[in-house]
Amino acid sequence: MEHIKKYVHENKERFINELVDLLKLPSVSADSAFSQDVLNTADKVKFFLEQAGCDKVEICETPGYPIVYAEKIIDPALPTVLVYGHYDVQPADPIDLWDSPPFEPVIKKTALHPDGAIFARGACDDKGQMFMHVKALELMMKTNTLPCNVKFMIEGEEEVGSSSLSWFVPRNKEKLKNDVILISDTGMISNQQPSITTGLRGLSYVEVEVTGPNRDLHSGLYGGAVANPINILSKMIASLHDENNHITIPGFYDKVEELSKEERAEMAKRPFSLDEYKKALDIDDVYGESGYDTNERNSIRPTLDVNGIWGGYTGEGAKTVIASKAFAKISMRLVPNQDWKEITDLFQKHFENIAPKSVKVVVKPHHGGQGYVTPIDSIGYQAASKAYTDTFGATPIPVRSGGSIPIVALFEEELKSKTIMMGFGLDSDAIHSPNEHFGVFNYLKGIETIPLFYKYFTELSK
Amino acid sequence: MEHIKKYVHENKERFINELVDLLKLPSVSADSAFSQDVLNTADKVKFFLEQAGCDKVEICETPGYPIVYAEKIIDPALPTVLVYGHYDVQPADPIDLWDSPPFEPVIKKTALHPDGAIFARGACDDKGQMFMHVKALELMMKTNTLPCNVKFMIEGEEEVGSSSLSWFVPRNKEKLKNDVILISDTGMISNQQPSITTGLRGLSYVEVEVTGPNRDLHSGLYGGAVANPINILSKMIASLHDENNHITIPGFYDKVEELSKEERAEMAKRPFSLDEYKKALDIDDVYGESGYDTNERNSIRPTLDVNGIWGGYTGEGAKTVIASKAFAKISMRLVPNQDWKEITDLFQKHFENIAPKSVKVVVKPHHGGQGYVTPIDSIGYQAASKAYTDTFGATPIPVRSGGSIPIVALFEEELKSKTIMMGFGLDSDAIHSPNEHFGVFNYLKGIETIPLFYKYFTELSK
């Protein structure tokens, strides 16, 4: 393990500078205005993979943004690790809430990151965490310690639903053949208490459009006499939760896995302070489904959130208008066994059913993905657990995450292999928010831990 | 009356071209980006008032946009008519729904306007209707038929609450002294059946802000565990109406004037086809307060409409975020006897009360105004009625409008005179909407009718 510490110590400045270069590219996949930047980012990732020592690196065209594939095969008889990550990032807005420009990375110390953290969109999700794997390979190549074969598949549409990946994977099963899939796109409890994500929530993301009159109307001449699509949309959204914050869509909970008392007790052991949680978010109270605590609400329970809403006059001043249309983006987080396509259908039918005759409703499914659970008795989990224990000096706790990496379920279905989610970020790293950052400590610890996973996974595979 | 028809006939091309010039100026008072255009419009109005024959025209400075004042005093012993209008216009958005640019006027024939209509923002509300009075004065001056004194007060903030006018009027009572106030900023039933607006609704306009967590959050990591301000705002808005579409704000209806069976029967005589109404708006059904029909809902009943809503990610694609804040612009149309300040307070208290502990709510009152009723036995109403009867060949029907001209109540309070609302627009002219227009027939009829009002008002005042 000494050679690892030594190499990281000697190269950490460069490791950081190279990541900073990557973060300067605004690879926002959700906004076509950035499409050239997304493509440039793919080229940059290709460059770094070649530099790290892969002997085959390709930009694979897809119906959407390309997938960067790379491999280093040292012996077909040895196990193969497939590393997945994404080079695209979330939109940066609201930009005015960033303390520094989202694509001009700066390193600042924070209470949780005394060694400093890199502030930039994508610093943690997922450029920083993806790049740890590139640097870990470089380390193993330069120190001649790569114990097995490795493949990389880095996509550019994770933040918009990975539709091209779903197209790519079934068409390249042989090329992607592997014994375990390794992803760093999740978090851990703290820098003192590592954790490994064993469960992910699924996702169904839809956009709804409510149309009232065929044109915007004067709210004085028509107000009170015609359905106002914004009022109606608000009413429809409100009706999606009952007074206990249960979701009211018929059949929504039918397949939800209810955890046993024991499992819930296990989960409850996770260190957690409700006061600190509220303080960190500056809220007087939490809010959620009756009968479940905060950590259960955001991990083992399905949810429905409006991610965006707009309609009518939103400019400066006042406009007395009744809008013709109102819109909302709505996403549902799903738990294992809930099928996202089925839930999307249930939502669509229900939302159309509850619309009054005085408006027209269109529901456009955006994308989605299944939930997932990793067995903690698998070789992959054991190898990851030993690796963290070596580098952090503490055994990682298995946790269910509330987030979604839809493609994990796809991998299991298409490639028949399990995914290990070795996350090194913290919940406080503000991914998807202004001032996203990634601790320098976490970044370097990741680079140190990954080679040990390769070592233990290869040993345990014998 | 022949001299009137003759003058209009000989000058109508110029009348139209001068209005087109005025409409080319984007005097959007709600958006500070247009402030210079608003000021230029005031200068243009001054120019036209001088050209029409006023012997005193001033640009009166105010805390906001200036008020253009003009007068033609022929004999202090004669009655004085004060003409009010506004030179500012509503914002043009959504601009992409306009068939032609909002500030590049075009004349097109429509089913209701076989002689053509001028399409532009402000064509009807209120530049076109205000300009009829300028041209009517020119006509009376050029034909030596002005029978009384006239004053003009044209403001630039009607679309944003007339706050500077409320400042100006009390400070200029002597200057504004008059016997009747004449406004053309309302509509009439049809080009075959004129009507005079005898009632206006009051207005209370507020903006609300709901804040949940102190930053945007990842909807996977926090979804279900914290209050989503968009879901909460939707819920709060939904709760403002009950299942009968009565407004739920405590005390909201306390002072609402309930009309007698007789009055409601009188109103019901107004020609109206629900099918045509629905067809014109392309809606399958109307929607409103139980126990009242469509024409009652939008005239004698108070309402609450969301005029704009926004929050979270509203861009292209998908962003799985829980927004920190959600906003809405909400306006209430009030009926005579409801005090807008009192209603604004009731709204504010109620909205703050219904907010769950998990969010913070701010209610910002925008502006408002009182409702108003004109007695139909007044000299002013009688003079207007006779004028319309002469030019349209049909006696106008008195109607209550759902719209608000808050300053009408102010005039009565400060200047102690009644306002006559001689509107020449049609409900279908799409004021406050894309493709606003004003019929050439209506424009010229207005210029013909106004001098007759002066004539009859002067005679009846003797």
Descriptive notes:
- Chains A, B: It is an enzyme of class 3 (hydrolase).
- Chains A, B: Keywords: Dipeptidase, Hydrolase, Metal-binding, Protease.
- The structure is a homodimer of 462-residue chains.
- Chain A has helices at residues 2-23, 35-52, 127-142, 163-171, 219-222, 229-238, 261-268, 274-281, 294-297, 340-353, 379-392, 407-415, 440-461; strands spanning 56-60, 67-72, 80-86, 106-108, 117-119, 149-155, 180-183, 187-188, 195-200, 202-211, 217-218, 303-312, 321-322, 325-334, 360-369, 372-373, 397-400, 419-421, 425-426, 437-439.
- In chain A, the strands form six sheets. A six-stranded mixed sheet of chain A has the order 1-2-6-3-7-18, with helices on both faces. Chain A has a four-stranded antiparallel sheet with strand order 12-14-10-15. In chain A, strands 4-5-20 form a three-stranded antiparallel sheet.
- With 462 residues, chain A is of the alpha/beta class.
- In chain A, a hairpin with a 6-residue loop joins strand 1 and strand 2 (67-72).
- The model of chain A has no long low-confidence stretch (mean pLDDT 95).
- Strand 12 of chain A pairs antiparallel with strand 12 of chain B.
The number of strands of chain A is 20
Mean pLDDT of chain A: 95
Low-confidence stretches of chain A are none
Task: Label the structural class of chain A.
Answer: alpha/beta
In terms of quaternary structure, what is this?
Answer: homodimer
What's the overall geometry of chain A?
globular
Biggest β-sheet description of chain A: 6 strands, mixed
What's the end-to-end separation of chain A, in Å? 21 Å
Strand order, largest beta sheet of chain A? 1-2-6-3-7-18
* Helix proportion of chain A: 25-40%
Number of helices of chain A: 13
InterPro entries (chains A, B): Cyt/Met_Dipeptidase, Peptidase_M20, Peptidase_M20_dimer
GO molecular function (chains A, B): dipeptidase activity
EC number (chains A, B): 3.4.13.-
Protein name (chains A, B): Dipeptidase
